[in-house]
Every structure is written in structure tokens, then in C-alpha cells.
Design brief:
The protein has eight helices and no strands. By secondary structure, it is mainly alpha-helical. The radius of gyration is 22 Å and the shape is elongated. The chain starts with a helix and ends with a helix.
Length: about 170
């Protein structure tokens, strides 16, 4: 990132491009969320997970996040990775997003650990990685064995005869 020192004011252009790419990848994900997993990882979920983290990364570089207020904000915003991953796990049962975001959270934690050992962000990153990884395993393992994890109540709410009754008009 040597070019940061020569062109420090150009991060807003990169942030706009990342946001446009994020909206494009989100639209792609919602249109094609049931692709085969090999294609889904390489084309949809991998770039979307990376782009989500890159928005935070570029934003931190854009505002030169070195003061206390920026570090506090970063410690709050990092939890968005967990929320974003849990959304995809709960809504789509997409374990690929969970695995990818947990890997990115782990890499963020390792970098922050070597950058500042006495800080909270690396602890938060490893906590997010652990929770997201365990939640991803809870969704992925039943899917591998052919059992889907469902949060809905199984079975008919109303008997089939009672549901057809108004249509028969013989009550």
C-alpha cells in the first residue's frame, strides 16, 4: 500500500467502487443462491465475503483510523462480520459464506495481534471467527448427511380435510 502515501485522497473512489461492487455481488447472490457449490464459492459467495470485509478495510484506510475514536468504532463495526455471516446461515443455510467470513475474521485477528498485542480488536476477531465457525458447522454437518436443519415447526397446521371443507361447500 505504498501508493497511499503518494495519493492519500483517492480512497473515496475505491470505497465507491467497493460499494458498487457489493451491490452488484449482492444482486448476483440473491438471484443465483442455489447454484452448485463449486461454482457458488468461486463466483458468488467468495467475492461477496471478501468485498464485505474490503469495504471496512478501505474505509479504515480512507479515514486514517489511528486515533482512539476510530479504534472504538472499528471495535464496534467488526461485529458486523458476525451479523452478516449469521444472516446468510439463518436465511439461506449457506455454509460457504460462514466458512469464508470466519477465515477472513481469523486473518484479521492474526494481523491485529501482530499489529497491536494490547488491544481488543484481535480478541473480537477471534471470538467472531469461533462463533461463526461453530454456527457454520451446525448448519453444514446436517446438510452433508442429508438432514436439513429447520427452524420451522414440521407437520400440518390444519388437517387436510378441514382445509378443503370451504371448497367443497357441503358443510
Amino acid at each position: 500500500m505504498l501508493w497511499v502515501h503518494y495519493f492519500p485522497g483517492h480512497f473515496w473512489i475505491a470505497e465507491i467502487m467497493l460499494l458498487l461492487n457489493f451491490s452488484n455481488l449482492s444482486a448476483l447472490y440473491f438471484r443465483h443462491s442455489r447454484m452448485p457449490r463449486v461454482i457458488h464459492i468461486a463466483v458468488v459467495s467468495g467475492p461477496l465475503a471478501w468485498n464485505f470485509v474490503a469495504i471496512f478495510w478501505c474505509g479504515a484506510a480512507m479515514v486514517n483510523a489511528q486515533n482512539l475514536a476510530a479504534r472504538i468504532l472499528a471495535n464496534i463495526v467488526i461485529w458486523g462480520i458476525l451479523g452478516y455471516g449469521l444472516f446468510f446461515l439463518a436465511a439461506f443455510k449457506d455454509y460457504t459464506m460462514g466458512f469464508e467470513l470466519s477465515i477472513l475474521a481469523a486473518s484479521l485477528g492474526v494481523h491485529q495481534f501482530f499489529l497491536k498485542t494490547i488491544a481488543f480488536q484481535w480478541i473480537f476477531a477471534f471470538t467472531i471467527m469461533s462463533v461463526l465457525f461453530l454456527a457454520t458447522l451446525a448448519v453444514a454437518i446436517p446438510g452433508f448427511f442429508g438432514k436439513e436443519l429447520s427452524f420451522r415447526r414440521e407437520g400440518d397446521i390444519v388437517d387436510a380435510d378441514r382445509e378443503r371443507q370451504p371448497l367443497l361447500n357441503d358443510a
